[in-house]
Amino acid sequence: MLSGMSTDLLFLNRDTLLQRAFDATVVIRGEVITLTCGDRSLVCGVHALAILEVFATPKTLAEGLEELSSRSRGVLDWVRLSNEVLVLARSGVLLCPDVEAIELLSEEGKFSSLNVHIRMLSDDIRTLAYQHALNATIQPADVVLDIGTGSGILAASAALAGARHVYAVERSSSIAKLAGAFFKANKLDHRITLIEGESSRIELPEKADVLVSEIIGNDPLSEGILATTADARKRLLNPGARLLPQELRLFALPVTAPESFYEQFVCTFGQAAVWAQRYGLDFSIYADECRRRNFTAVINTAYTKEWRRLAQPVPIAQVDFYRDDLRRVAVSREFDVEVSGQLNCVILVFELQLSPEVFLSTHPDQVNATNHWASWAWLSGAPLAVSAGQRLRLEYRFNTESKSSLSMAVIES
Q: Which of 206, 170, 22, 24 is nearest to 102 (CA)?
């Protein structure tokens, strides 16, 4: 079905409002004019360009045909032109403006693309945990602020949990429009006010009693949750407002990544030998260079459950959203190796405290395959052979201008 197409267009009349679809594109090859719209293609007549020009802004069918009449060459040409308008309308190239066409990007990883929000909705552990926390937190008189509403699921859940009113803030215009349609479809639009824009640049008609947000990235602090929450506390919330989440704890999990994963990102001498046999060339220079570097990758920790864990998760940071406004994190932690093995990977995992009794975690034992977070993994180009009882030092840094970074060193053999 074409984006934004309405069944109302099956029953056109002179007063039907029409406008060109936002994603209608024209391809001209010789005398053949092809229009593409959504996932459909349509070979058009000679009047297609004129019709798209006239209906670039909303017009009734009668107004559009009147404007086009001056471009026809006799009665037969006029019949063809008016028929082409009807064909384009019924094919979804011309739309009713009251049926809003929402432009959604499909670029992987962008929050203006729908696939990101589908993955988050499919993450049932994450979504149900937030719903349970909202049900336990919200009181009937509460005003709720949802920053980064995305699909609208948390704002809608807050309304269903009994909030008096919900303000849903979303910076992506296309996703905001879709969330608005979602609220309307669920008959919640009278209790949820959608606000497009950055939360740091908006004002609310009233201050909120509860802040809910899920702006935790694969690199957990990289989506700006620290600064966003601190700004909301100062400007948008009542004194004593409740926060979801309340606290974030970061951990580093030292593991042995299997070769099948590790060699996707790091060239080892073994991999160089395989390539040499396969391609008839010497690749050892790449393996030698990799040993001087560290690499990063992302992975759903659900797929790391069976990886050898060389130590317990190492606590590296704890953020209290009620008081912290950190711009930089720099910590050094010592820990003991518990299981001998090859330390070639450290995975960054986190635990969120959503409410006093509701927690979320990306630890491998706490997620399933629907987990939408792809946790950061640091891969050492020169793995450490470690033994139980050895003491290592881990250093972690984060600042708002760059991503997290990590280094590891043996301090006791």
A: 22
